[in-house]
Amino acid sequence: MKIIRVLLLSLLITPSLAQQVDGGNGHSIVLKKDGNVYTIGRNNFGQLGDSTNENSSVPILVSRLPKIKIISRGYDHSLAIDSSGSLWAWGRNNYGQLGTPIANDYTTPQKLKGHDNFKTVEGGHWHTVALKNDGTVWAWGHNFYGELGNGNREHSAFPTQVVKENGEKLSGITDIVSVGYHTLALNKKGEVYSWGGNDFGELGHFERKIQPFAKKIVNLDSIKDIAVGWHHSVALNNQGKIFIWGSDPSTQNEESTEKFFKEIIELKDLPKIKKIACGSWHSLAIDENDEVWGWGKNHFGMLGTGDTTSFSLPRKLSLPKGICEIGGGCFQSLALDTAGNIWTMGDNPSGQQGQGDFVRLLTPQKVSLQTSASAPIKPSQNYFNGLTKIIKYLLFSLSILLNIYLLIKLRLRKPNRH
After folding, report:
1. pTM of the predicted model, to two decimals?
2. For residues 102 and 151, what is the distance between their CA atoms, to the nearest angstrom?
3. Cα 89 → chain centroid
4. Tally of CB atoms within 10 A around 227
5. How far is residue 8's CA from residue 317's CA, in Å, rounded to a whole number?
């Protein structure tokens, strides 16, 4: 689920101003070209960064950040890199995935201390992986499945460096992708390394054993793009061919699957592909004609086929021609065409589709700028809305206590009938 360079939210943020968008487990994060960050959707762990735990179906400005150049999401946390290369994190922190010494959830951005010069960052389930400008990779948080790639399986609230099997530091990396419990890294030679959980061979090594260190995937070279889902992986080579391995997400049911690939498979009978992306349980691709293909789980309509039927092999989706960007969230898909129209589909329980409602979309829907009459909720507005709810609750509770007090007092005043 790589950084999605499409526009999810047209409320306030126009396609010409949006730079990056990413989606987690019911929340979305948007970066404008002016360096401001907006969040929307689920906020039970503070992943919106507005100092509250209230969900929002309209964009909220994350005000406590400097100018940002890169954003990403974790499952329930949010990440950003500022113009100086410093890293910021907020949201859930049960395993130290925010890189702070105290394992509390944070509703406002926290600056990572002791490390800088970051190029990009990816959030997994309960861990974070980041790439520095020098080509080294660092990870922190949950590590039961070897997600940190540091040679052991101990959790860490502090960044640890990813190493190879022989203990040598992984270097020369140009890109990283991570979602659930595994990570892929691409180097400048077009080689791919992997580490972490491997229940279904998603690492490209088919022993199906946890791998707490980076290992090169054999028989996979000249790669120019990588993407991962929860238990599956996808790669695109310089010739426009797609390779897949791991679970068949169309048959995935929580942590079990009816089918997984025992080797790296090339997808046949496709036109030349130029871009790939993954959601947690599905995959997407744009071909040389700017048409979109999709495959995998479709139980919430994230493939936009009008139903919830899943399929294992790529199928051309009913999006218009001219799609230039694609991306997948947990249970959603996003697309942007060359005319600047935004298309969205899939689940919407927290308003993460940016539609101003919570209706599931089984077919691609254009996000109309004409529906964005209302201004976004500012952090201060959210604060006072929350304060109003608290005051109402206290007044309600006080009225109950007062009624109980009066009832007791009335009974005590009853005359003695003996």
Report:
1. 0.83
2. 24
3. 13
4. 26
5. 18
